[in-house]
Each structure stands twice: as structure tokens, then as C-alpha cells.
Fold this sequence. Notes:
Strand order of the largest sheet: 3-2-1-4-5
Bound molecules: adenosine-5'-triphosphate, magnesium ion
Oligomer: single chain
CATH architecture: 3-Layer(aba) Sandwich
Number of strands: 5
Number of domains: 1
CATH topology: Rossmann fold
Amino acid sequence: MNKLxxxxxxxxxxxxxxxxxxxxxxxxxxxxxxxxxxVVSTEAYPNVGVAGITANVDEAIRQEGEELLKxxxxxxxxxxxxxxxxxxxxxxxxxxxxxxxxNNYDLIVMGNRGRGAIKELFLGSVSKTVLNDTTCPVLVVx
Length: 142
Ligand SMILES: Nc1ncnc2c1ncn2[C@@H]1O[C@H](COP(=O)(O)OP(=O)(O)OP(=O)(O)O)[C@@H](O)[C@H]1O
Ligand SMILES: [Mg+2]
């Protein structure tokens, strides 16, 4: 089986990564499986002080991540391909590598950039971490 892991953050580039993964799978005769993975970053708001407030922020961010996966699943045309959605909390780059490794994916398909603000960079910090740390083949989509 052909297992593709597509880490998504809601950016246009990540959407293109999904489209690339889908068209690759459609061209193959072999049964394929795509997993969309979103990591709810626990690094996003490290300094929100009071415990109760932190919990509310965490819940809101988690909710946003669930919504992202749900709306993405609804808008993609997945005829003939098995696609599932996974939500993990933690440090995005690290969790993507760990998930790919532990679950024996054949390929990671991800964007070179994401929702970050600095558009001049060729690689964002998440794609950079994944390229550095994973032993899984990676296809970087622009
Ligand atoms: N939280 C996340 N969960 C899953 N995948 C992610 C996440 N963030 C980014 N990605 C994946 O990594 C790709 C590159 O995004 P990255 O975050 O590295 O760039 P950026 O947002 O432009 O830069 P930075 O986050 O360093 O400001 C995205 O297209 C997406 O495939
Ligand atoms: Mg980013």
C-alpha cells in the first residue's frame, strides 16, 4: 500500500500539497491512502499566564484545528482514495516526523511555506525541521 502523509496548516500551499498528493494517488493502480495531519501547536502562545486562561486558549486553538480538518475533508474530491484526518498536539515539525516514522508512511507531501508572515523565506520552520529530522522521503510543494 502507498501511504502518504500530508501535514496541513490551512495555508494555500498546504492545499496545493493535498492536491498534489491526490493526483499522485489517482495515477497509481496500487491502493493508496492519504492522511491529513494537523498539529495544534503548543508553542503558539507560550506566555499566556494564568492557568484558566491558558486552558481556554488551548481549547479554542484545538477547536480551530478540528474545524480545519473537517472543512478540508469536506472540500476535497477523494473519489477512490482513502483519506483520513488526524489531530495531534505538540511541536509541529517534531510531531510530523514522529507520526510519519511510527506509522510507516512512504512519503510526506508538504508545502515549502505555510501561514507564517515572512514570505521571502524559501522554507518555513516546520518544513525545515521535517526535512532535517525525518528519514521518510519528502515532497515539498510550492
Ligand atoms: N501546525 C501544522 N500542522 C501540520 N502541518 C503544518 C503545520 N504548520 C505547517 N505545516 C506544514 O508545513 C508547511 C510549511 O509551513 P511552515 O510553518 O514551515 O511555513 P511558514 O508558516 O511560512 O513559516 P513559519 O511557521 O516558520 O513562520 C505547510 O505548508 C504545511 O504543509
Ligand atoms: Mg507556519
